Amino acid sequence: MRLLVFFDLPVVERKDRKAYQEFRRFLLNDGYIMIQFSVYSRICNGIDGANKHIARLKKNLPPKGSVRYLQITEKQYCEMTFLVGSPNPQEKNINSSQLNVF
């Protein structure tokens, strides 16, 4: 299971830039990797794991802007096609085979 988070946040005012930085820092600390600017992905252990991270995401939303998420299976994620460019090194190193189930 993967969570994709897409966001578009204002960065005109100083408090907006701070909110952007805090939200981005939250995503990175919660295990998301950047796929593209303002698009982050996270591997989750099933629907329960995804729901846990969705709840965390909702608790850390910035006050302004647009934030949305998409929940997809690992198979759907692997079927993503690059039209221009290639996966970044961090994205190549993280896949579902590294997910441990306890």
Structure keywords:
102 residues; alpha+beta; Alpha-Beta Plaits; 4 helices; globular
What does this structure look like?
- InterPro entries: CRISPR_associated_Cas2 (IPR021127), Virulence_VapD/CRISPR_Cas2 (IPR019199).
- Its cofactor is Mg(2+).
- Helices cover 39% and strands 23% of the residues.
- The mean pLDDT is 90.
- A hairpin with a 2-residue loop joins strand 2 (33-36) and strand 3.
- It has helices at residues 14-29, 46-59, 74-78, 89-93, and strands spanning 2-8, 33-36, 39-43, 66-72.
- The chain has a single domain (2-76), classed as 2-Layer Sandwich (Alpha-Beta Plaits).
- It is of the alpha+beta class and 102 residues long.
- A 4-stranded antiparallel beta sheet has the order 2-3-1-4.
- The longest helix has 16 residues, at 14-29.
Q: Tell me the distance between the termini.
A: 16 Å
**Number of folding domains?**
1
Average pLDDT score: 90
Question: Outline, from the CA principal axes?
Answer: globular
Largest sheet: 4 strands, antiparallel
The CATH topology is given as Alpha-Beta Plaits
Report the total helices.
Answer: 4
What string gives the helices and strands in order? Answer: EHEEHEHH
Assembly status: single chain
CATH architecture identity = 2-Layer Sandwich
> Could you tell me the number of beta strands?
4
Query: Which strand order does the major sheet show?
Result: 2-3-1-4
State the helical fraction.
25-40%
GO molecular function: hydrolase activity; metal ion binding; RNA endonuclease activity
Cofactor: Mg(2+)
Pfam family, one: CRISPR_Cas2
Keywords: Antiviral defense, Endonuclease, Hydrolase, Magnesium, Metal-binding, Nuclease
